[in-house]
Amino acid sequence: MYRGASLALAAIALSATPAFADDDPPTAMGMLAAKGNHDLEDEAWNVYAQMTYISLWKRAFDAQYTDVDGAVNSLLPSNERSFTATFTVFLGVRIWKHLEAYVVPEVVSERALTNLHGLGGSIPNFELQKSGSTTPKLYRSRLYLRDTIDLGGERIHKDSGQQQLGGSVDSRRLVFTLGNFTVLDVLDKSAVIGDMRSSIMNMAFMTHASWDFAADARGYSWGGVAELYWDDWAVRVARMQPPKDPNGLPIDFHFWRYYNDSMEIEHDHKINGKVGSIKVVGYRNHEFVGNFADAIDELGNNHTAANCPEGSVTYGSTNASAPDLCWVRKPNLKHGAGVAIEQFVAPGVGIFARAMYSEGRTEVDAYNSADRDVSIGSVARGLLWHRPNDTAGVGLGFSWISDVHAQYLELGGIDAFVGDGRLTKGTEGNFEVFYSAHVWGPLWLGGDYQRLWNPGFNKDRGPLNVYGVRGHAEF
Question: Tag placement on the chain: N or C end, fewer CB within 10 Å?
């Protein structure tokens, strides 16, 4: 979910999401179970909810230039404040034995740093959406069916949680998901990071920063995923629909013409009794987007950012000498591949690493402007310091753009998120450290610090510091 969707990742075993202590007030679901009205071991339905408020302050930073010659995508170098406030309800019901339905309404209010401009792969708050505003908006983030076909093997218990009914499944099974959701509900789920609303929160750590997965401006799409689980192995194949226009809200339902295909292979393992996993993911997009080299070539025909055809999708530049993608959008291919590794090293302590390479010839259609990325980090629950419901973590991320993408920006071009009018190409990076303290019952309060450098892949700007506070509640 973005540029960021507000993604409530499902609660799963080994998650770093804080758990309620035994003496905490019972949840509504727990009280129903105690009265015999609800079976958490074999749920027919469940209801969960969450509230999260994140406030960030960006300190002023040095910049040799900002929005040169009519460019509009520089991160402002002055002090700024950003916030997001979300309220989400997760509804699940079992239609029959193995068929489940989920609907997730959500309310979002937000203010982004510089209207989400100026950062390519390291947005400080993953909750931010391209279509958001300070006025709260109610919308449906998800509406989908999930069917599980057991094939044998060991029985595995699945706990009750957000977007998951409590029950048992075979270790060998087929799972089909169809409807409106985010592909990150199924692929590249992190057991170490857990629910980012109570964990590390820079968008660089939500998934691969250069994975341009299909999504609308809120981060969701329509499509389907097929999964095969075979003991320690899993294979997932997804087809999701892109937006009609790059980074827009309406979805293109011509699934035979435009689409995002993704495939993930996962192997779970244990090292010295501690669980871990390795995931390899690849994607192939067929979408109506612009090619950077084509846009540069069109400069010879006086096709610049200042005179885009009427009715075309533009990003607002008025530079009369810069290339623009508005002239060259057509069916194009985009593909990439990446790997994610996770390993628990102590009780409640996990480490993670991700890396992806995307070819970088076309503009971002739905996610971030990065073309390559690497991220590493660790998240720990407070078992080691006798605060079992607290969470702390640290992350380090790097992202790059391709040579032709850099050439396009050097000439003054902009894409959906970056473009200062000039460019001295550099690696965009971010460092984050956070602590989330369990205060009472369903409530957590925390602090966050982020250091970002070369914003917009530009060595001529930054570095900058971002400070944050967060309140999070689960019901």
Answer: C
> Which sign does the torsion angle of CA 183, 186, 187, 191 carry?
positive
Amino acid making up residue 275: V
Amino acid at the residue 211: W
- Which phi and psi (to 5°) does residue 28 adopt? -60, -40
How many CB atoms are located within 10 Å of the residue 361 CB? 19
**Residue 473 and residue 475: Cα distance in Å, rounded?**
7
Residues 378, 380: Cα–Cα separation, whole Å: 7
Torsion sign over Cα 2, 350, 104, 448: negative
Q: What is the pLDDT of residues 26-83, one digit of tens each?
A: 344 444 444 344 567 789 999 999 999 999 999 999 999 999 999 999 999 999 999 9
**CB-count exposure of residue 183 (10 Å: 0-12, 13-18, 19+):** buried
> Is residue 169 within 8 Å of residue 46, measured between CB atoms?
no
Instruction: Give the amino acid at 450.
Output: Q
Q: How many CB atoms lie within 10 A of CB 309?
A: 9
DSSP state of 69: G
Rounded CA separation 183/177 (Å): 10
Residue 234 in contact with residue 228, Cβ under 8 Å? yes
Q: What angle do CA 353, 14, 50 make, to 5 degrees?
A: 100
Give Cβ neighbours of residue 97 (< 8 Å, ≥ 6 apart).
none
Residue type, 375: S
Short-list 213, 232, 88, 255, CA closest to 153: 232
Phi, psi dihedral angles at 134 (to 5 degrees):
-70, -20
Triad 294, 299, 303: Cα angle to 5°: 95
Cis upstream peptide for 284 (omega within 30°): no
pLDDT in tens, 379-404: 999 999 999 999 999 999 999 999 99
62, 462 Cβ separation under 8 angstroms: yes
